[in-house]
Specification:
The complex is a heterotrimer of chains A (536), B (393) and C (57). Chain A is mostly helical and 536 residues long. Helix content of chain A is 69%, strand content 0%. Chain A has a single domain, classed as Cytochrome C Oxidase, Chain A (Up-down Bundle). Chain A has helices at residues 4-15, 25-30, 34-62, 73-108, 116-124, 126-141, 159-162, 165-194, 207-238, 252-286, 293-307, 322-334, 336-350, 359-381, 384-390, 394-424, 430-457, 471-500. Chain B has ten helices and ten strands. In chain B, a hairpin with a 4-residue loop joins strand 6 and strand 7 (212-216). In chain B, helix 2 runs antiparallel to helix 4 (114-124), helix 7 (285-304) packs across helix 9 and helix 9 packs across helix 10 (386-392). The chains are: A mainly alpha (536), B alpha+beta (393), C mainly alpha (57).
Chain lengths: 536, 393, 57
């Protein structure tokens, strides 16, 4: 593609992408290029990952020993809730959207996303939303308000009705983040439906795109419900409505239904892009075609559908009627089947391949094992009677960090190590990458494995101080968390180093890659696929 | 050995030193790897189910990842392994290989786990049959109220661990954070139906050794049951984030033989009768202030602070407060809306200020109001008699 | 992957033998279709949001 750069100007004239090329900050504010927007999403995600991480390290430091050492409970409650909101909405989701922006047009042979200006808007809504979320911390320093939202990320009414100004900030932040997600999702859906290269039927669509397609539909189906729930919360707080106030004929549990109708699919929203990416990585480093492509597509769809009908297993202790308990228990167990399909296909893809273990493959394998633990403990959590013991305890905290750190964040890191050479044209520092992997995996388990035992022993979650019998495991967990947190600085350095330079990456980058994007040069020109690829 | 000079070396040495210091402590520590000893049929059942699950998922985990690790060892490029070409099952045998794991999983989900789970749910929710007695639990920020409808006993149970222990100014006691002033007393061997509700936000009543955990939802009644098999003291905590002192509202249950329980009921009834008599007598200001100080420290100091300075804006100061220093009652002796007495009796909606007339006795209310008006630099000098509170209810 | 993705042409083939570029008209048509679908999806999302307020216990 030596003629690619000469096509740049041609593209600008013909399609109006970046018709003018402002420089400096204005260039980034106005860009409609999917690669530039993708990069901005990823950088934003990385920054917010460290912001959310810093918050939780403060929390873990407080929990290092019994007693209140560093902070008062009010501030502790603010940190845990904002940590979760930041990690979910401002780190993991933008990272996945960054992947989508970079990769989907490259993978399906499209010149850009279908709606480039909406794409720009989708990104630039994020920084103000993240500011709204964290601003109350800073305002409180100046004596304005009583800090950020202190209800946990679940915002359960009536606690959130009672809360201070931070709740209103969080409500507005969620609205903006929701709009951003919906714009992004719409763009991804229409791009996949309309801009595929000739010959790329839906059943030839790369699995990463399939994963994101289901995620996008889930977002469109559930974000409005969350937005509705928090709007109701807002009117309950300020305009005298009684959606969640029993004294006025409302029901606090209604909020939980609405929240988790969004909240459970949200787990799959975070994980489906990663599940989509895994087969690409595993197949590449096994030098063997993906096993069970169709089965995985159907499993994605099945998980998407099941994801929206199992929400109440997040509040099985709220006193649901027996038939509802049984329904939510058995439907939740059903999710283990499509998930097992995915695990089966991942391992079958490796089976009798020719494996090598570069950093992305290590992260993929680490992901499979640790996410496997999340899946298995999730199966156990579905059981109503046992859940009565696990629920609201550290067992659940450990479970969802195995799902969302080992599943979500390590999945994202897999993608970064896998695609970064393609994006930058430089190979990643393998030595540092492997060091980052081993430190992450070991310290992750050191952090969260003890939390399973804490939960079993009866330690409730979200408490700033605990009884003496929980002291040892908490101390271990804190040590692990600090190693885990500081190990991520290696990651930031590796990414920085790779952007700056390094060994030149070939077009294919890895020996075993397959797919359209690997036909482009590394890095791809700003405007790629001006020449339409055809898929046989 | 040469002394380390470079800072990183020094850091490494001190880190090793720290680890060496920690290790014996870690090795001697009392670790708990599983649920605490169960003392009710439900808890026993849950522990059994949990153990069974853990074996099942461990077997699944080991089997699946043994296969993966075998593949990782054998099918490596560095060993010269040539990649196969298959992308899906072909032929009957391979289809069988692909489908058998799912058949096993369905069997585990819906037979091996599913059937005991069904029975466990039914047992756990069987609150309405053959109950010997009823206990009503009300969660409120940040304490529990217990009521025995059969005998008319009603009391509040709050954290007994001192604030100094929490602030690390005092050695932590053995039951740090898991100790209350008034524990619930329940007879062993009786099926107790527990009704649960809340007055403000959602709380969760949880005693791990009972195997029950149920949310306390304002405006709704939830239920569960326990049948404690062994006498003893059982400790738990609130399990749903309920605001500032969520970590500081423990549950403590004394399970005693029936005779002992009945004696306790009699004693409690006498105490309540004595307290009720108090509301008819005329109290002096000093008596009220002294009694009020006690009530204040238990009920109010959590938010308004021991010195009455509060934690604005969420928890306003009482010292110098307009409301506290306002008039006591209207000239006709009626309640003034949003006055000091009104606030204490009826609370303030949408805030943590609760309706204390539901939880405190006439004497306690009169005492605490009088105390607040004559402390923290407030010098109203007036007092309110318990009898008047009784009339205002 | 069961699909084998390959470009129709190798790196060296002449430009004429490549598949036609998205022509101006074709791209405009696809963009139009995308916009229509985007409006539909956006409307669905908004409708879902608004329906919530009609919820009755």
């Amino acid at each position: 593609m030596s003629n690619a750069s000469s096509l740049d100007q041609h593209a600008a004239d013909q399609h109006g992408y970046g018709a003018s090329h402002p420089s400096g900050i204005l260039r980034w504010l106005t860009t409609t290029n999917h690669k530039e927007i993708g990069s901005m999403y990823l950088i934003f995600a990385l920054i917010m990952f460290f912001v959310g991480g810093a918050m939780i390290l403060a929390v873990r430091a407080e929990l290092f020993q019994p007693g209140l050492q560093l902070m008062q409970p009010e501030f502790f409650n603010q940190l845990i809730g904002v940590h979760a909101l930041v990690m979910i909405f401002a780190a993991l989701m933008p990272a996945a959207t960054g992947f989508a922006n970079w990769q989907i047009p490259l993978m399906i042979g499209a010149p850009d996303m279908a709606l480039p200006r909406i794409n720009n808007w989708g990104f630039w809504l994020l920084p103000p939303a993240a500011t709204l979320l964290t601003l109350p911390f800073i305002l409180a320093l100046f004596g304005i308000g009583d800090g950020a939202v202190a209800t946990g990320w679940t915002l359960y009414a009536p606690l959130s009705v009672q809360g201070g100004m931070g709740v209103d900030f969080a409500i507005f932040a969620i609205h903006i983040l929701g709009i951003s997600s919906i714009l992004g999702s719409i763009n991804i859906i229409v791009t996949i439906f309309n801009l595929r290269a000739p010959g790329m039927t839906m059943m030839k669509l790369p699995l990463f795109c399939w994963g994101w397609l289901i995620t996008a539909f889930l977002l469109i189906a559930t974000i409005p419900v969350l937005a509705g729930a928090v709007t109701m919360l807002l009117t309950d707080r300020h305009f005298g409505t009684n959606f969640f106030n029993a004294a006025g004929g409302g029901d606090p549990i209604l909020f939980q239904h609405l929240f988790w109708f969004f909240g459970h699919p949200e787990v799959y929203i975070l994980l489906l892009p990663v599940w989509g990416l895994m087969p690409h990585v595993i197949s590449t480093f096994s030098r063997k075609a993906v096993y069970g492509y169709k089965a995985q597509v159907y499993a994605f769809i099945a998980i998407g559908v099941l994801g929206v009908i199992v929400w109440a297993h997040h509040f099985l202790t709220a006193g649901l009627p027996v038939p509802a308990l049984l329904y939510f228990m058995y439907s939740t167990m059903a999710i283990s089947l499509p998930l097992a399909v995915l695990f089966f296909c991942w391992i079958a893809t490796m089976w009798r391949g020719a494996m090598s273990f570069e950093t992305p493959m290590l992260f993929a394998l680490g992901f499979i094992v640790l996410f496997g633990m999340a899946g298995l403990t999730g199966l156990v959590l579905a059981d109503v009677a046992a859940d009565a013991q696990y629920h609201h305890s550290y067992f659940v905290v450990a479970h969802f960090h195995y799902a969302l750190f080992a599943g979500g964040i390590m999945g994202v890191m897999t993608g970064v190590y896998f695609w970064l050479p393609k994006w930058t044209g430089h190979m990643v520092d393998e030595k540092l990458g492997k060091l980052h992997f081993w430190l992450t995996v070991i310290s992750f388990n050191l952090t969260f494995m003890p939390q399973f035992f804490l939960g079993l022993a009866g330690m409730p979650r979200r408490i700033p101080d605990y009884a003496l019998q929980f002291a040892e495991f908490n101390a271990i967990s804190t040590v692990g968390a600090f190693i885990l947190g500081f190990s991520q600085l290696i990651f930031a350095y590796v990414v920085w180093k790779c952007i700056r330079g390094g060994e030149k990456a070939s077009d294919k980058v890895w020996e075993g890659t397959e797919g359209l994007e690997w036909d482009l040069p590394s890095p791809p020109p700003l405007h790629s696929w001006e020449i339409q690829p055809v898929i046989k | 050995m040469k002394m380390p000079h470079r800072p990183c070396q020094r850091a490494a040495v001190s880190l090793l030193g720290l680890l060496a210091a920690l290790l014996p402590a870690l090795a001697n520590a009392d670790y708990s790897w599983n649920f605490p000893t169960p003392v009710t049929p439900i808890a026993r059942n849950t522990l059994h189910i949990h153990n069974e699950f853990m074996i099942i998922i461990t077997v699944l985990f080991v089997t699946v990842f043994a296969i993966m690790i075998y593949s990782m060892i054998k099918h490596r490029k560095s060993l010269g392994h040539q990649p196969a070409k298959f992308t899906g099952p072909t032929g009957t045998v391979q289809w069988l290989w692909a489908l058998v794991p799912f058949a096993i999983l369905i069997f585990i989900d819906y037979i091996l786990v599913g059937i005991p789970a069904y029975h466990a749910v039914v047992q756990m929710e069987d609150t309405k049959t053959k109950a010997d007695m009823v206990l009503k639990v009300t969660g409120m920020q940040w304490k529990w109220q217990y009521e025995y409808p059969d005998s008319g006993i009603k009391f509040i149970s709050t954290l007994a661990t001192s604030r100094d222990q929490i602030a690390n100014k005092e050695t932590k006691g053995p039951h740090y954070l898991l100790d209350v002033d008034n524990p619930v007393v329940l007879p062993v061997g009786k099926k107790v139906r527990i009704l649960i509700t809340s007055t403000d936000v959602i709380h969760t009543w949880w005693v791990p050794q009972f195997g029950v955990k149920r949310d306390a939802i304002p405006g709704f009644l939830r239920e569960t049951w326990v049948n404690i098999e062994t006498p003893g003291t059982y400790r738990g905590q609130c399990a749903e984030l309920c605001g500032k002192d969520h970590g500081f509202m423990p549950v403590v249950v004394h399970a005693v033989p029936e005779a002992e329980y009945l004696a306790w009921v009699d004693k409690k009834k006498n105490e309540m009768a004595a307290a009720a008599a108090g509301s008819d007598k005329t109290w002096s200001k000093d008596e009220l202030v002294a009694a009020g100080k006690e009530v204040y420290e238990k009920q109010c100091a959590v938010c308004h602070q021991p010195n009455g300075q509060g934690m604005p804006p969420a928890f306003p100061a009482l010292a110098g407060s307009k409301i506290v220093n306002g008039p006591l009652l209207s000239p006709e002796g009626k309640l003034i809306k949003d006055s000091h007495v009104d606030r204490v009796l009826n609370g303030k909606e949408g805030t943590a200020m609760q309706t204390f007339k539901n939880t405190l006795s006439d004497t306690e209310l009169a005492a605490v109001i009088t105390f607040e008006r004559n402390s923290f630099g407030n010098t109203k000098g007036d007092l309110i008699q318990p009898a008047l509170i009784k009339a205002l209810r | 992957m069961s699909q084998t993705l390959h470009r129709a042409d190798g790196e060296n083939s002449a430009a004429e033998s490549r598949a036609p570029n998205f022509s101006h008209e074709e791209l405009a048509r696809r963009r139009k279709a995308s916009q229509r679908l985007a409006w539909v999806l956006g409307t669905v999302a908004l409708a879902l949001y608004l329906i919530g307020f009609l919820l009755k216990r």
